[in-house]
Amino acid sequence: MAGRGPSRQELIRRRRSGGFIGRQGEVTAFRDALRQPPEEAAQFLFHIRGPGGVGKSTLVRHLETIARESGAVTAYVDESVADVVETMEAISAQFAQRGLAMKAFEKLLATYRRRRHEADAGLLAAATGPAPSATGPDAAGAGGPQPSPSSMIASQLGLAGLGMIPGVGALTGAVDPNQVAAGADRVKALLSTRLRNHGDVELVLSPVDALTPVFLEELAEVARRHPWVVLFFDTYERTGPALDAWLRDVLGSERHGVFPANVLVTLAGQSKLAARTWQDWHDLVTDWPLEVFTETEARLLLTGKGVTDERVVEVILRLSGRLPVLVSTLAETQPGTVEELEEIGDPSGTAVERFLKWVPDPARRAAALACAFPQELDEDVYRAAVDEEAAELFGWLRSMPFVTDRSGHCRYHEVVREAMLRLQRRQSPVRWEQLHTRLADAFRRRREHLEEATAPSEGWWSDETWRSLRLQEAYHHLCAAPRAALPLFLRDLLDAYDHGITTLRRWAGVLAAAARDTQSPPLTRWSEDLRAALDRPTPGTATLTLLLTRADLAPGDRGLALTLRGRDHRNGRDFAQALADYTEALALNPRATRPRYGRGRTYELVGRRDEAVAEYTRVIDIKPRHVLSLVNRGMLHYVSSRYEEAVADFDTVVGIVPEHRQALTGRGATHGAMGRYEEALADLSQAAAIQPGNSAWTLVHRAKVLESMGRRAEALADLGRAVELSPDYVWALTSRASVHRELGRYEEALADADQALVHEPDDPLALFVRATTWAQLGDFERALADWDHVHAVSPENSWAVRRRGDYRRMLGSYEEALADYGRAVELLPASASTHTARGLTLRLLGRHAEALADLARSIEIDPEDAWAHYEMAVVRAALRHPERDHHLTRVVELRSSPDAGVQDALEADSLLLAHCLLPDWERAEQRLAEFLEEAPTPGQLRALIVNLRGLVAVTPEAEPRIEGFCQAIEERLTDAPPA
Predict the structure, then answer these.
(1) Domain shared by 613 and 572, yes or no
(2) What is the dihedral of CA 654, 658, 659, 660, to 10 degrees?
């Protein structure tokens, strides 16, 4: 079977290619690059730059034709893409049209679109529960504007809650990992209630990081089957800010994967490449600055178009300034009558005006002028713009050299469009307003027709087609009546930003276009100010501040702007400003639920839990089905040990959404904390079964319950499954490390803690588990290093300061230990054990009076603390005080009781030490034998040696006996697992 011949389109491209004028140096260099083996090609990144009309896009199209003729596969993108995801999608779609479908990428992209839709719908439902009826009690507008799902993702997932998420200030006072980790992974919990697995959550949160590696793998497969792949990025001055970092990453690093050597990239834009991104790439970028045609090149093009009359040539050269697009435009239509020839000597008029004079058909002239008004044309827009007599001339217009046509959408070259708009704005302001109004109405009708269908569950702003129609409608209103349309457009900026920063930038771009096309001072001023705001490090916040400062917003709109800015401040950890914004928004509308929820969330993040609960309660009073507030309040009740209230909130949520995984998990965790283990397991098992592939958060909670029930093997199985589902899940790794440590599996414990710290180097719980493991192994130096790290991460954490003091004391750094204990007492004055530890250290320094004060305070706080009584006895013994025996008796009573709890590892064995101090050597030897029989950890053995030798200064006559004990313990240490 004969191979398929060239298509008509390909033949047209070849014909046009044969008549290409100028740029021979660039064309030759490009051809040479395609002829070289990829491994030898020095040129792989070309940058075409120059002012509008100089022929950049024409050269790009010509290079694209050359590349295809050489057997290369090509793809082209321009300013129609707004971000990296859309860029990859556009390239993939063009490859598919050529029979080179990037199936894995397309599948993952489709998954991303579906999961994003599910996440949007899920977050909106999570905010308010199932949609109420239009006449129901929740239908009132008192709650204020609803958040867009996309903004809720940014809001909910931008931060980890203080005291709620392992990794941020979680350790306060005595560590209870179960309670601290109650809100583990809460920043992802809302998404995980809807999405199938951890990978889907990451896909929604970081689509570029998830999609790019797959895109590059597919690109490599296309490149493997073809000599070259050439990617063209036109109008790069507009897309560069969004694509620069990504493009540099894929070209110059292996962050996302390998970039094939036989892929060439061509950029075309008006500006030089951004220095901050490309400054060290000067030797790798082939820079092609374009100038206007030389006179020889311009004359050659005119000759090719059949323009040979010298008078006409001179006029075209003069009017066009040899700018290629104008030379081509004027050459397209030339005078043919004596009267027209006589007009040539007229020096007035521009190139575009002369072109229009030379178009003989009035209908065509009118169509060319009218179609300059839309930013982009398809046949429907064309018919809306032109009069009836020109309705069938769309094909003619598309053939004009100043019109580019891709996939049925046409666009005027900016140089020609600006000239035509300027001409019409000057000549007929009335027609200017009428035609823009007519086009605005056409886009409005198309939008309203779309709205006749069922709205997306996440609202019309989530629909790309709807947004495009709304945007063009706004553009034409701004052009028709700038002052009248500006307030509504500024209001639209709030909804645009609520949808996302990319949408806000699109709206800002349209405002800039309207300002340029109308030359309206108000639009120009707003456009410049908005552009400056968007160039700030926090563009959204800067834009909202600009609107709040300058725009005359209605109270409801001002409340929305304050709410959005409060959200941004909260996500930026500027909690004071966030609270100020939310408070001001609530002053405008006390019944607005969105700012009230935001203020509650902010209170929660700064640890003001009671105030957070109060805010969530007010939201629930206004909207009883506000699921997010119910869940958050339930979690706060849980971590505050208000278990009955927590269960009530979770019950309410489950009544609204029976398979709400976060609520079931929260209720299960609460039942576990209340000792209702069977109910806890029922809830957690139901939650885990809802989406087994995305149940890591729930599995960790279930593991905690199983651990409390003594079912550690099952707990380890759940934790292993959680890690399998989410390998970078720090809480799961840390929890498994803790179980391994409790089982004496120190190597496994350290491996899990190390892995957790790879993902979160400052996670306090992981550091706590590792430090405790090192201590149990007797490696106090490494334990101290980890506590130093915890203290650096959480300097106000009393437990971290206290524990660092303990290990400093164990290593003989008494003064440093005292400093830590002093700070720990400041942070938590009612900690009996900290007073005991400081009293012990003071005793070791011989400062007995101060030691007595601390130990007395410890016993006052906790009269049943055997260790405090032991230390008090030691100090009394040093002072030869008769009450020594009373405290020793209390130690024996407390430690011999069946209800005696587990002693801290660093306390070692106060009963043995008390017998040594009495002295009662027979019982001391018996207790030592029992202690060694209990299989103490190396850390306990080492701590006991330190504590025993600390007695020598008080009872020097007992040194031989104490040393004998220490030698027996050291012998056991030699048999212990290595640290």
Answers:
(1) yes
(2) -30
Distance CA 559, CA 581 (A): 9
pLDDT value, residue 793: 87
DSSP string, 905-930: GGG--HHHHHHHHTT-HHHHHHHHHH
Residue 558 lies in a domain: yes
One domain for residues 467 and 602: no
> Do 778 and 976 form a contact (C-beta atoms < 8 A)?
yes
Q: What pTM, to 2 d.p., does this model score?
A: 0.74
Decide the pairing of beta strands 409-412 and 403-406.
Answer: antiparallel
CA-nearest of 632, 637, 638, 685 to 661 is 685
CATH of the domain at 807: 1.25.40.10
Joined together, the tokens standing for residue 425 give 């704005």
Residues 932 and 892 in one domain: yes
Residue 923 in domain: yes
* Cα(964)–Cα(118) distance, integer angstroms: 70
Residues 808 and 893 in one domain: yes
Per-residue pLDDT reduced to its tens digit, 314-334: 878 887 778 777 878 777 776
The answer to whether 703 and 722 are in contact (CB under 8 A) is yes
Composition of the chain by helix, strand, coil, percent to 5: 70, 5, 30
Is residue 737 situated within a structural domain? no
For residue 524, count CB atoms less than 10 angstroms from its CB and return exposed for 0-12, middle for 13-18, buried for 19 or more. Answer: middle
489 and 611 share one domain: no
Alpha-carbon distance of 629 to 619, in angstroms, equals: 7
CATH number of the domain within which 17 lies: 3.40.50.300
Q: Is the pLDDT of residue 701 over 50?
A: yes
Q: Report the run of H or E that residue 45 belongs to, with start and end.
A: strand 45-49
Q: Helix or strand or coil: residue 193?
A: coil
Residue 532: domain span: 444-552
DSSP H/E element including 494? helix 482-499
Question: Per the structure block, which two tokens stand in for 139?
Answer: 């239908």
Q: What are the pLDDT digits (tens) for 449-470?
A: 999 988 887 789 888 899 999 9
Output the DSSP codes for 629-658: HHHHHHHHHHHTT-HHHHHHHHHHHHHHST
Task: Count up the domains in the chain and report the number.
Answer: 5
Q: How far apart are CA 302 and CA 327, in angstroms?
A: 8
Q: How far apart are alpha carbons 589 and 712 in whole angstroms?
A: 52
DSSP 258: P
Question: Which is it for the CA torsion 940, 945, 946, 952, positive or negative?
Answer: positive
Domain-ending residue, one of 552, 571, 595: 552
**Considering only CA atoms, which of 403, 405, 424 is closest in space to residue 414?**
403
Q: Are strands 73-77 and 285-289 parallel, antiparallel or unpaired?
A: unpaired
CB 663 within 8 A of CB 654: yes
Tokens of 866: 């055997």
Burial-class residue 672 by CB neighbours within 10 Å (0-12, 13-18, 19+).
buried
41 with 53, same domain: the answer is: yes
Say how many C-beta atoms besides its own lie within 10 A of residue 223's C-beta: 20
Element (H, E) at 304: helix 295-304
State which of 512, 529, 552 marks the end of a domain: 552
Q: E strands along 137-284, which residues?
A: 229-233, 263-269
Closest by CA position to 561, among listed 553, 573, 569:
553
Are 574 and 583 in contact by the 8 Å Cβ rule? The answer is: no
405 within a domain of the structure (yes/no) = no
Q: Is 245 left (phi over 0), alpha (psi -120 to 50) or beta?
A: alpha
The pLDDT of residue 929: 92
* Whole-angstrom distance, CA of residue 177 vs CA of residue 172: 11
Residues 459 and 590 in one domain: no
Maximum CA extent, the chain: 133
CA distance 678 to 122: 29
The reply to whether 578 and 601 lie within a common domain is: yes
pLDDT, one tens digit per residue, over 122-155 is 555 555 555 443 333 333 344 555 665 555 544 4
